[in-house]
Amino acid sequence: CNLAHHRTGRAAPPAGDSVLFEDTSSAAPAMNNQGYYTPGYNMGGTSNDMQGGAGVNNLFTDPMANAAMMYGSSLANQGKDMVNKEISRFMSVNKLKYFFAVDTRYVLKKLMILMFPYTHQDWEVRYHRDTPLTPRQDVNAPDLYIPTMAFITYILLAGMALGIQKRFSPEVLGLCASTALVWIIIEVLVMLLSLYLLTVHSDLSTFDLIAYSGYKYVGMIFTVLCGLLFGSDGYFVALAWSSCALMFFIVRSLKMKILPSLSSDSMGMGSSAKPQLRLYITVATAVFQPIIIYWLTSHLVR
């Protein structure tokens, strides 16, 4: 009895002593009869997370990685600067913003001048320190907001007119839009070529020519609307009115841009022919507008 009691006392450690190894056998996952662990036991999950975090920290603390990131950022900035430089060669973003510097008051007054130019008296473009004022400050300054919005409205109105006549299709509408855009490009190129061949020094830029050429869409919208509402008679009356108003507007506007330089060339050789040629350019540009209006709107009204 004493021997058994002595063995029993040696088998159980004292309650106050510390345990060197924790017994985790009770927490181990159960094994099935095929010798595999049952699902739900994540083995080594904590160590993977720790390794992933350490990898990210090593990426940011590695000098080579930081140098590579800085080099890639510098290459991206250089590429952005090159793209902006190439764009600036053909198109000035700041100058483009100038043509869209409009407000509601300017748009309303400009539309009234386009439709009723005969009542407008002062056509001179104002300057401030050799810089033209923005459209919102000068109603005579050309803009690109009205031509852009008028072009979009014309395409939408053409789609509605074709739908009323049951002739609408995406191909026909796309052809209508592309034709209107091509006519603008041709007109601007012809004007630039004429000014270059005649060595005319004027304040007209490419954006100015696009603006003056795009104002015809306002008259085209008015013509198509009258044709849809009042038939062919209303169409031709509106065509005559918008054509005359646009021609008057173009002549008075371009007169302030092209013809003022006549006095500066009056001292040169052969200058007697240049004033007439410049006047012909202005008049030809104005007379060409009704032809384009009729070409782009006649098929929409039947």
Mind explaining what this structure looks like?
By secondary structure, the protein is an all-alpha fold. The protein contains eleven helices and two strands. The longest helix is centred in the C-terminal third of the chain and has 40 residues. The N terminus is likely disordered. Belongs to the YIF1 family. It is a multi-pass membrane protein. Keywords: Endoplasmic reticulum, Golgi apparatus, Membrane, Protein transport, Transmembrane, Transmembrane helix, Transport. One of its GO terms (biological process) is protein transport.
Task: Write out key terms for the chains shown.
302 residues; mainly alpha; globular; two-stranded antiparallel sheet; disordered N terminus; single chain; 11 helices
